[in-house]
Specification:
By secondary structure, the protein is mainly alpha-helical. The chain has 27 helices and three strands. A three-stranded mixed beta sheet has the order 1-2-3. Helix 11 packs antiparallel against helix 12 and helix 12 crosses helix 13.
């Protein structure tokens, strides 16, 4: 029923007292000349015109028709019009009195209830039960839609180059890209190359020297459950053969075998991930990032047409072995974006990572707050903490306890400029105090990690409440270590140090005046982190660190089988028909890791310039040399 119809009913109720006497006088005439009444179905018509009277209809036929129709449609039973008329008018008068007291405004539910006053009690109970069931379904649907909408990914922020343009300006980025293109053109000089129409993707932007991706990797639709579409990656027979070769090379730690797989299948996912990790420990961060980008490109090219992960309504369960590589690739890509300073792009990747599996196998929820703060998405972070899974359970995690206090601090600063501070929400000082009460060992870890060397921190750490860097709960201590390792850079800002120290003083004053607070918060910590085992042990603290571990090359040579790789490279016929494979000797390797250059030369997309031939006949000379 529309709002216009509701107002119309109320207006009719207000005019009923004036028409009551006239209608009583016309009752006898109506019974003699034939009944004239307003058709109740006209109320369903949302028009401004008044209902027209119906003439030349017998009373008994009208009674029967109206009774049967109202029972089926509006659940209103009518019998003798003459005997029921005054009762209905009295009911309308009472309704009119109530409407006049409330200013003529009623909720739509009350009006609909008034229109079905004669419904049987059993029908009312049945309707009430159905209404409750519908409300429960609507609530679940609303919660699900909120969880999905809060994790929707904006594709324009996935492109790191766009964010770099916003940070440094388009001229700086363009000049950098021009220099890189010039360097790339020098590297591929002397190599026969063809142009490929590469598929456009949203996760990464394919480079012009990449080869086309085949269809050996695909994705199949599994089912639709609770509003989510479930998918799984599928390997073809040829891809499975390469996968078995990779597993064999992995079993004996043979990096030669892994590199040789990429010679035949440049987009083998597990081999690319392995080489990315290998280049990272060698210090070749650009080569590592390039391998991850190729991996994501191949994974996206295999997406099912029904797979729309940016909407947050698709699931790739980590339990399927074929789905695991995309989680590793996205998590590594997110860290690479963070190292480049593209925090907003990293936030979008983090949202995508969390939306693919609600169980969060990679711990993306423990990075979400960091990237939101670094990209200054304060309002979104508060909304996410309120809407995600329809509860405030994530407020109990160390990272959200402290990050939401920081978030409120910056929102208060913005609101103070506009003089519109929301008094209904807790202040940043109160939120920080609660975070310290719940996770007191964070202060000592931050003082060591940041580091904080002012005298005020020495005085704070003298108090028994902040003296220890352990809480006694393995899960809580592990999450605190992850938080400090991931977010310690934020605490180098003087304003936030002042906020933290001020809240710590308030905690000390509170505990000195009311020692029962200490027991109460200890009970809260025990209730929240009740497990005696580390429930988050699968998340390594080093995975959330910005530091990159390195292994000396001499140690790598002991178990990676470098001599065998050199012997394999001597067989030129084995790699003669590989796309993008050049045999030019490497250049400018004096300042680089020799082992990294050696493995780099095996990859099909890596080519080098011939230092002796720089003329226009490079292509011809190279072809003759290869022949």
């Amino acid at each position: 029923m529309s709002a216009r119809l509701v107002k119309r009913i109320l207006n009719e109720q207000q005019h009923l007292p004036h028409q009551l006497s006239e209608e009583e006088e016309e009752d006898d005439d109506d019974n003699e000349n034939g009944s004239t009444f307003v058709n109740p179905f006209d109320l369903l018509n949302d028009h401004d015109s008044e209902p027209e009277p119906q003439e030349d209809e017998s009373t008994s036929a009208n009674e029967t028709l109206v009774t049967s129709s109202l029972k089926d449609s509006a659940q209103i039973s009518t019998s003798n019009p003459k005997s029921k008329k005054k009762k209905k008018k009295k009911n309308k008068n009472k309704d009119n009195a109530v409407a006049s007291k409330t200013g003529g405004e009623k909720e739509l539910d009350l009006i609909l209830e008034d229109l079905s006053l004669n419904a049987s009690p059993s029908a009312e109970q049945h309707i009430s039960a159905e209404a409750k069931a519908v409300n429960a379904k609507d609530k679940n649907r609303y919660v699900k839609q909120n969880s999905i909408s809060i994790l929707q990914v904006d594709p324009k922020y996935l492109n790191a180059e766009n964010e770099l343009r916003r940070i440094f300006g388009s001229k700086v980025v363009k000049s950098f890209e021009t220099s890189n293109q010039a360097s790339s053109s020098r590297q591929i000089r002397g190599v026969r190359r063809g142009r490929h129409n590469l598929k456009k993707t949203v996760l990464v932007t394919p480079a012009s020297n990449w080869v086309q991706c085949d269809d050996s990797l695909s994705m199949e639709f599994l089912e639709t459950k609770n509003g989510y579409n479930y998918f799984r990656y599928v390997h073809s027979s040829s891809y499975s053969q390469s996968q078995r070769a990779f597993e064999a090379a992995k079993a004996i730690n043979d990096i030669n075998g892994v590199a040789s797989i990429l010679q035949y299948r440049p987009y083998h996912i597990d081999s690319l991930l392995t080489m990315a990790e290998y280049f990272k420990v060698l210090g070749e961060q650009q080569m590592s990032a390039d391998s991850i980008a190729r991996c994501l490109y191949a994974l996206e090219c295999a997406w099912n047409p029904m797979f729309t992960p940016l909407q947050g309504n698709c699931q790739l369960k980590y339990g399927h072995d074929t789905n695991k590589p995309i989680f590793t690739a996205l998590f590594t890509h997110m860290k690479n974006l963070d190292r480049r300073g593209c925090h907003r792009s990293a936030l979008e990747v983090c949202k995508l990572l969390l939306s693919l599996d609600a169980d969060d196998p990679m711990g993306a929820i423990f990075c979400m707050d960091y990237f939101a703060l670094r990209s200054e998405e304060y309002a979104w972070l508060e909304k996410f903490s309120e809407d995600y899974k329809s509860d405030n359970s994530i407020w109990l995690f160390p990272n959200f306890s402290y990050s939401l206090a920081i978030c409120r601090f910056y929102l208060e600063r913005e609101a103070s400029k506009d003089a519109c501070i929301d008094s209904d929400k807790a202040s940043s000082s109160d939120l920080m105090k609660q975070a310290l009460m719940l996770h007191p060992s964070v202060i000592k870890k931050l003082v060591t990690k940041v580091p904080l060397k002012e005298r005020i921190w020495t005085d704070i750490l003298k108090h028994t409440f902040f003296l220890s860097d352990q809480t006694g709960s393995p899960s809580q201590d592990h999450l605190i270590s992850i938080y400090v390792e991931r977010n310690y850079l934020i605490w180098r800002l003087p304003d936030l140090q002042k906020l933290l120290s001020g809240a710590a003083k308030l905690v000390i004053e509170t505990l000195e005046s009311n020692k029962s607070e200490l027991t109460d918060w200890a009970c809260v910590r025990k209730e929240v982190f009740s497990s005696e085992k580390n429930e988050y042990g699968h998340l390594l603290v080093s995975d959330f660190s910005d530091s990159v571990s390195s292994i000396p090359p001499e140690n790598l040579q002991q178990f990676m089988g470098v001599p065998g790789m050199r012997e394999a490279m001597q067989d030129e016929n084995q790699f003669a028909n590989l796309p993008g494979n050049g045999h030019a000797p490497p250049r400018e390797v004096a300042n680089r890791n020799a082992l990294a250059v050696l493995f780099e030369s095996m990859l099909p997309w890596v080519t080098y310039e011939d230092m002796e031939d720089d003329g226009p006949d490079d292509d011809h000379g190279h072809r003759q040399e290869n022949q």
